[in-house]
Amino acid sequence: MKEVNSPESPEREKWTPASWVKSILGIFTVIFLCIFISSTYSMVQKYRATLQLSQQQAALTTQKIANSINDKLTTLTFAADELAASLHKISLNKESIEATLKKSALNHVDFYALGVAFDFYQAGPQFRLFAPFIRQDDSKYRMDRVDLYYDYIGNTGYHSENNRKNNNWYLQASAGKRGWLAPFFDAAYQQYTLKYVLPLHTETETDKVAGIVFLDIGLEWVRQQVENHDVGDNGYVIVVNEFDQILYHGLKGSRKVISDLNQAISPAYVAEFAAGKSGINELTGRSAWFNKYPIGKTGWHALSVINVEIGKKHLFENDDDVQVIYKSDLTTWIINAVALSLMIYTWIAIAKHQQSVAQLLRHAFITSSLLLLGIVAIWINEYYAPYPVQNNSLILSNRAIVEQFQNDYSVTSLNESKKPPFFIPTGLFIQSIEFLNATNITISGYIWQRYPKHYEEIIEHGIIFPEATQTAFTEAYEREEGGEIVKGWYFETTLRETFDYSVYPFDRQLLWIRLWHKDFTKNITLIPDFRSFDSLNPSTLPGIERDFVLSEWNLSRAFFDIRVNKYNSNFGDIHFTSHDKSPELYFNIELSRSILNPFIGHLFPLAVVLLMLYALVLTISRQESSLAITGFNVSTVIAACSALFFILLIMHVQLRDELAVNAIVYMEYFYLVSYITILMVTVNAVLLLQDTPMKMLAFKDNLIPKLIYWPILLVWIFIITAILF
How confident is the model at residue 342, as a pLDDT? Predict the structure, then answer.
């Protein structure tokens, strides 16, 4: 009987070096994948938490501004209510009315005018109209009368026909209107005014309106109240009234706001400011939070546009532990994503034994594409990342920050037993900038200062540019404004500064102008003259000529900031009060390089040279059939490589001459990698034609160098980019 053999068990797979590589790579890929997923999840959670906190802070800031304005308005309207209550109890005659008005005015502040306007002969038979008011100017009070300027009942004295029809404040109030009216040009003040009105009744005739109590403020009052709050570098606020008129706009000056008063904003525009809605900041073009909050019961609303910032910790009030996402976090994530993608793809290729020529070509193409994608992603992240703020810098982007600095430094001076600081508002208007070389720049424009007309100490007028190698000042004007002297100069100066070109052509430079007062040994501190600018928002480029031309550079932001500097000398003055700590005013201009010129002038020719070099690699062969077609020989390769080398060398020298720096910049590494690539191509051609060429070169007639040309080249560029950025 034939013996039946039992079925053989399958032969166990033998462990080869390729199997070991596949297994080890697979293990590391899984570990790296888990770490990458965990870090990505953590960053997403951080992003969401920070985004939510940013949204809450934007809403709270809007609410805070609205409530602050409402509190101020409530205090002002209380003055008018108090005056109406006092007038209600007295007999109406000129003397008693003026005495009551004076008493009420002296008990309150911050209004422009407080008064009462009576109907026909209500103040006495000798007064057809009688409308006394007290005008408040700083600490001075002056009695005046509206009826001496225009007939407030007869609809005359208005700035325009539109004002007459829509803004007859007396008729509106006598008809029962109580509250804030639409702004109009009042001939009594010769300015646009916001008027609060309420009807006045006498004790004997409570049903009849005897007159109107009014309180006036200017549009500048609204601006001052809003700018007492910080909404970030590129945020802004809009205040609208119940008639859909803009009373304040953070991106527009007072004259533009006034000219647009007769153009009511559309309801669709106001509807964009839904609570917590995300939109596009028209100033920066970036994502921002849009919020709207009512200002009490006035019918006014505060609208805010505050940038969605997830990389600036100082925006998050009362939360020092908040984690933000920095540029380096995104760069690290990009590097990890590219590395993980390469690991996964390599493991799949090894596992599937994809080793045919077509598959190897596909591997080279995909690897090169992933590396190129990673390089471009890092470029984009670098180009759009915000400019880092110096640790000792305080950006003065609005009135609130300026006033807070003044208060803080006054307290510091008191604690250090210094003389009280004297703050001088200073403004700057730049008309031209020219880069002379890598360190020297020439700047021209106007600079001005405000000095009190009468001050207890004689202060010399003037400015010093400490970094200047040469400066020329020409006095341009000097005039009096109220209790101040405004003095301006035209200047041309050459400044010597240090710039960082290490990441050229993705570099962004901070051009700064340090400002000292002429008598800098005293405790005199310069601050921005915010009254002379429509906005100090950095993205509005305050102090920069509108049609400013600067070749190869784009203007990003312009802003004032305060930096604390220390000096190891008293400059020969024993009374030097800021020896240990000196806050100094800087005017800064952020410039981003226009990458079009460097790309066309350097990167594009480099790419063409590398493509030509790769075409040269494709012609390298030992097969006679290929040699007959391409005519390949070593001398031809060496001659071609030499020509390409000298082309790159000329371009490289030109780049060094343009920048004139004593360091290697990012773009130069492309040239260095290209030099090495040219050398390796030459070596490849020489070694291939040896009698016994290397196995790696002999494999399928020099296939491996053709496959690894772009991956190796891009690996070097990717590593350099990852390290420098």
Answer: 92
The contacts of residue 287 (CB under 8 Å, 6+ apart) are 278, 279, 280, 281, 307, 308
Report the CATH number that the domain containing residue 211 is assigned in CATH: 3.30.450.20
Q: Confirm if 467 and 440 have CB atoms less than 8 A apart.
A: no
Quick one: 582 and 608 in the same domain? no
Note the pTM of the prediction, 2 decimals.
Answer: 0.79
Query: How many independent structural domains does the chain possess?
Result: 3
**CATH code of the domain covering residue 538:** 2.70.170.10
The most distant pair of C-alpha atoms in the chain lies apart, rounded to whole Å, by 149
Is residue 277's pLDDT more than 70?
A: yes
Sign of CA dihedral 339, 345, 348, 352: negative
| One domain, residues 589 and 601 | no
Q: pLDDT, tens digit, for every residue of 661-675?
A: 888 999 999 999 999
> What is the Cα–Cα distance from 693 to 157, expressed in whole angstroms?
102
- Tokens representing 488 are 């301006």
Helix%, strand%, coil% for the chain, nearest 5 = 40, 25, 35
pLDDT (tens digit, 9 = 90+) per residue, 521-576? 777 889 999 888 888 888 888 999 887 778 788 888 899 999 887 766 666 665 66
Domain that holds residue 232: 15-317
What does the pLDDT read at residue 490?
A: 96
Give bridge partners of residue 434 from the DSSP assignment: 442
What are the beta bridge partners of residue 411?
none
pLDDT digits (tens, 9 = 90+) for 156-173: 444 444 444 445 888 888
The helix (H) or strand (E) run that includes residue 68 is helix 17-87
In a domain, 84, yes or no: yes
Contact 135, 230 (CB under 8 A): no
Q: Which residue has the tokens 């780049």?
A: 655
Q: Higher confidence at residue 607 or residue 282?
A: 607
pLDDT tens-place string over residues 110-157: 889 999 999 888 888 888 889 999 988 766 788 999 989 888 887 544
Task: Decide if pLDDT at 459 tops 60.
Answer: yes
Does the residue 324 lie in any domain?
no
Q: Are residues 578 and 622 in the same domain?
A: no
Look at residue 336 and tell me if it is in a domain.
no
Whose CA is closest to 213, among 140, 144, 132, 300?
Answer: 132
* 100 plus 166 within the same structural domain: yes
Q: pLDDT higher for 20 or 443?
A: 443
Picking from 648, 620, 640, 635, the residue whose alpha carbon sits closest to that of residue 704 is: 620
Domain co-membership, 222 together with 294: yes
Q: Name the one residue in this structure whose structure tokens are 């190129």.
A: 372
51: buried, middle or exposed (CB in 10 Å: 19+, 13-18, 0-12)? middle
pLDDT, residue 11, reads 47
pLDDT band at 314 (very low <50, low <70, confident <90, very high): very low
Of 594, 620, 645, the residue that ends a domain is: 594
Q: What is the Cα 312 distance to its own chain's centre?
A: 11
Residues 223 and 184 in one domain: yes
What is the pLDDT averaged over residues 470-480?
A: 92
The C-alpha torsion from 45 through 51 and 54 to 56, rounded to 10°, is -90
Residues 405, 411: Cα–Cα separation, whole Å: 10
- 123: Cα within 13 Å, side-chain hemisphere: 22
- Residue 271 sits in the same domain as residue 187: yes
Instruction: Verify that 589 and 676 share a domain, yes or no.
Output: no
Environment class of residue 537 by beta-carbon count within 10 Å: exposed (0-12), middle (13-18) or buried (19+)? Answer: buried
Is 428's pLDDT higher than 60? Answer: yes
